[in-house]
Amino acid sequence: MKTKNIYTIILFFTCALLSACKEDFLDRKPDDQVDAEQVFTRYNKTNQLITDLYDNAKGSNSPLVFFSHFSTAPVTDEAEGSTAEGSLTNKFNNGDWNANVMPAGSSRGQYWWDLYGRIRKANVILEGVRKYNTPDNPLQAGDLNKRLGETYFLRAYFHFLAARMYGEVVYVTHTINPSDPMDFKQESFHSIASKIYQDCDSAMALVPASWGGADFGRIDKGACLGLKAIVAWMAATPMWNGGSFPNDTRQFASEYTYNADRWNTAKIAAKAVIDFKVDGRQRYSLYQGHDASDFRDDAGVDNNNSKVPARLWDMYHSMEAFQNEAIFFVTRDKDNNWQGDIYPPSWGGSSRQMPVQEQVDEYEYIAPDGFGYPVYAARAKKDGYDDTNPYESVKRDPRFHRDVIYHGATFKGKVINTASGPDKVGATNSTTTGYFLRKILRESWNRDKSFSISGPPVWRLPEFMYIYCEAVNETAGPNAEIYDMLNTVRKRSFMAPIPVAAMTSKALMDEYIKRERRVELFYENNRIWASRLYLEPSSPKEIAKEQAWQSAGTTNDQRSQNVWPYPKAQRMINGMKPVEDPAGKIVVDGKTYKMQRYFIESRVFVAPRHYLFPIMQDELQRTPTLKQNPGW
């Protein structure tokens, strides 16, 4: 055979293996054994396959662009999406998706067919290395084992992503040929979790404790511990552990009755991440760069009226911050074009994703007694909180100023005006909620250069601290240990501590843990999953809030102004707009304003249908043994 033909065959095999096109994991042509041998008898070819599998993992779970050009935030009560890109996220919110079609352009490799195509790639690699006895890296002994460890992790990771979206899925540990019986069976979430743990343990035995230099960010033992902890937390939450799942037709519903041991498992797994040491030193720690007096942006200039501490900006841009607390992350998630889309129109942007009032209300204020409380607390008005001047009447959590641009905020040295001009609420390409997104942005960028950003890590240390605190609270009740741990995260952000009453109230501690998770992990691809895992849209507490809201006033705007906190049922969002008022406390461009709440839109969230994503109908037709998720 001519050399040219050999390389053509190898290229064809590699392209087929790594195709990003829609592939069904049950519908494959037999692998050509000669072609496979050409690949797996060469370390460099095998190495490239695993490197490309990393890229697949990035596409399947990119925090900033999970739905192609949008994050998951606009399909939750964190944000609203614009009508750009075919109004993609609004289609989710309108219920315009089903088991026959997902919104066009939304796929980045996160759906059933892509995930199982990528799981198959991992299995082809693992089997190919065993079958053809792939040689080690001739330049660095031991590299092959590390690469195999990474592949075990990625197989577990893709199954985790599948279970997160679809619940009861199939765990595939071998390649599937067309001649194989098409009788694949789904498993319970807890069975899937156990198999993820096993793959993570296989990976941990092969990957290093940590990577340094140019290899930083590759899968290490800490990432394996992190995946196990995240899955253990999911297994302990109400969706899979005793919650009231409406019209529950899941195949293994009988396995989801409450079991306190699942919280113990989550506690141990989270603590393993928190306490993980490398060479006798703590591997992970909260980033502590800069002090409370430093408000300079990445160009070393205070252009935010001393509202955004430099430390909080650095958390998403400093390599030191990533080295300290990123458990697993994907690199170069987006670039300056993404930021340009997010910018307010006054800076040439199109406000693609805008925070909503439901999220803004979760940022606490610092009371005269030195503790933090929600702005909707009974004591807030007495402490000085004024809903017509919500951003300055009391001192808000510094993370609020880092995350959200509001009427009267100083952004890039200029005061933002949402009452008039290009940034006016409802103007072309402007905000529809009264807010613009600030989190993750590079403040110094003036459309004068190109850059790329990694975005928030997939998992970072605070998430595991919250899991641990919640698990302790669930199993033993509140105590000083978890009180101090939560306050450590708050102190890092220059936020006041939780009131001491939380140490004696399980319910109050739970409230603070969940609010902390929501604030700290805002816009980090967390809320969409947490709201479902806790079954919030069908919670009696949230439904009661929803009913109270519906009963108050005669218009939606009146209800929005008079009844809050808003329900977390994912069926509506609200905003805040400036209204000229001689007695207003907010002065922008020489005019005085008060802020006023208003209703934006109703959304579709039907329980149980929208708790889990639908398996596509063509997948069910190919494999009749698969069962559709409840409600679809």
From TrEMBL:
Compartments, record wording: Cell outer membrane
InterPro entries in alphabetical order: SusD-like_N, SusD_RagB_dom, TPR-like_helical_dom_sf
Domain of life of the native organism: Bacteria
SusD-like N-terminal domain: residues covered: 24-212
RagB/SusD domain boundaries: 336-632
Main location: membrane
Alphabetic keyword roster: Cell outer membrane, Membrane, Signal
Family, per entry: Belongs to the SusD family.
Entry protein name: RagB/SusD family nutrient uptake outer membrane protein
Species this chain originates from: Dyadobacter sandarakinus
